[in-house]
Write a structure and sequence with these properties.
The chain is mainly alpha-helical. The protein has a domain of 60 residues. It has 3 helices and 2 strands. α2 packs antiparallel against α3.
Amino acid sequence: MFAWSKSYCFIGVLIVCFCLFLLASGDTHAQTTYKLLAPLPGGSAEVPLDGGFSIYAAQVFWFLLSTAVILALAMLIIGGVEYVGSAGNTSLLGDAKGRMLNAILGLLLALSSWLILNLINPDLVDFSIPIPPIPMESKK
């Protein structure tokens, strides 16, 4: 008789815990956005949970593309300074031309990645920011 009462108590406790779990889980409010701990420059600090990864991936892409453009322009400037400062030395002239050519090829490679992503899915590189209208209250 003692073994039956012990098992009944255990089953009763399991049923009560299950019911409490169902009540607690049905009453919670789902989180709709995720706040980034380290947002990207120029990106938003919060991304929605549904489709948020694609938004974040687009922000990462734009950040990396702008970084590549800035670095390519810096390498073009450095190559131009080396070209001017070579003073007729053919070895330094060749190095400067190679640096400028590599900077232009890197810039073309980065911009072609934008072109490929735009051909696959234009939403990946869409830079428009939807701004909701501000409701105006009429003064009486």
